[in-house]
Design a protein that fits this description.
This protein is an alpha/beta fold and about 475 residues long. It has helices at about 25-35, 55-70, 90-95, 105-120, 140-150, 160-180, 190-205, 210-215, 230-240, 260-270, 295-305, 365-370, 400-435, 465-475, and strands at about 20, 20-25, 40, 45, 185-190, 220-225, 245-250, 275-285, 310-315, 335-340, 355, 440, 455. It is built from 14 helices and 13 strands. The strands form 4 sheets. A 7-stranded mixed β-sheet has the order 5-11-10-9-8-6-7, sandwiched between helices. Strands 1-2 form a two-stranded antiparallel sheet. It starts with 17 loop residues before the first strand and ends with a helix. About 35% of the residues are buried.
Amino acid sequence: MSSDPQKCSRWGTNMQATLCGKPVGICKQEILQKKNNAVLVDGVILNGPIMDSKAGEKFVEEACKIIMEEVIQKADDVTEKVCEWRAPETLKQILDLEMRDTGESHQKLLQLCRDVIQYSVKTSHPRFFNQLYAGVDYYSLVARFITEALNPSVYTYEVSPVFLLVEEAVIKKMIEFIGWEEGDGIFNPGGSVSNMYAMNLARYKFYPEIKEKGLSGLPRLVLFTSEECHYSMKKAASFLGIGTENVYFVKTDERGKMIPEELEKQVQRARKEGSAPFLVCATAGTTVLGAFDPLDKIADICEKHGLWFHVDASWGGSALISRKHCRLLHGIHRADSVAWNPHKMLLAGIQCCALLVKDNSGLLKKCYSASATYLFQQDKFYDVSYDTGDKSIQCSRRPDAFKFWLTWKALGTTGLEERVNRALALARYLVEEIKKREGFQLLLEPEYANICFWYIPPSLRKMEDGPEFWQKLHQCG
């Protein structure tokens, strides 16, 4: 293909690039006339302006004004819509998604910003109930503004000194609430990734040779989790080459809790099959029912059989902050690893997810390190133990702990505790209101903030309970 843009099929013959708002040729001539020391290489002026910084600053200022007026100031306004719904094809036309050869004007871009806000779901709206997070935390929001402006990457101290120290402080505090005397950890892009990290770490603990030799020499590995677990356990098993058939799902009781006796049976079954059990994943706050597995009894079984004990507390971990509700996670201190997402109930802003590990011997780093010499030199002028990037499968990594840290600094532990207590008090209030109202049917008394109920429409309220009733009810939903 020709190196001449005018002869490339991708480029239109009449397309004319611009720089500084003018055709490139004219702008280049002006720059060359003004700069006696202009450096020209392959037709590119290397020391000319890449963009107009004043215009860029003005754009940021005007965009921030839109964010303030249309997002932040309207966040708690119940008269605003949660979502201004449009069908996909309609929304494509409204947003003008096409990327063109020439750039758009700032006025057009600002209008696009307004359109994006208008047609997005307002997760900070008081009536947004769709997921396991909601509301706005202003301190976390400011933290995100700061990190987006600084654009850091958290892998070495020399590149990200402040945010590495912040992450260390936050992890240390979270470990205290779990009840460990020491430990390690890393912030990850989601609880699903934290669960995958834990699964891989457990496998490495039992078979460290896998890091270099791979899967070929390993026995058939089996892990155990409840029927109500998060789907990320199956995804992690698939991704890591363990296989979804080797995820043994343990029966749960009527409240969605793992039954320890059934776990014992599954472990015995796997051993009789000649498999190698290595991991049990309990759930503290299941996605649908909000159930908390009996951690102490599960820990007993893990100790008996020498299995790694991971607790997926992505949803329920925040109850540890509450002196009133931390009993829900009784026994979590016996876990080998814990996934905990402050971006849910504690409103730290998506995404803010930590994997915490009881081991403090460097297991996390041993498992994931690649010792890239262009990043992790051992003869630097500072303590290289602060270069934590080798504990992660990522290279570039966001400073997610900073959002939680600034919120924690602003509210204190008592303020975070109040958020948890308020959320569960609201859940209790809703339960009592459901019980009073005709047409609402509560499935079970909640243990956490998950309220499971049916709304029975008037046309079905006098219908006898049976297969036909449930079929019609599902059609209504």
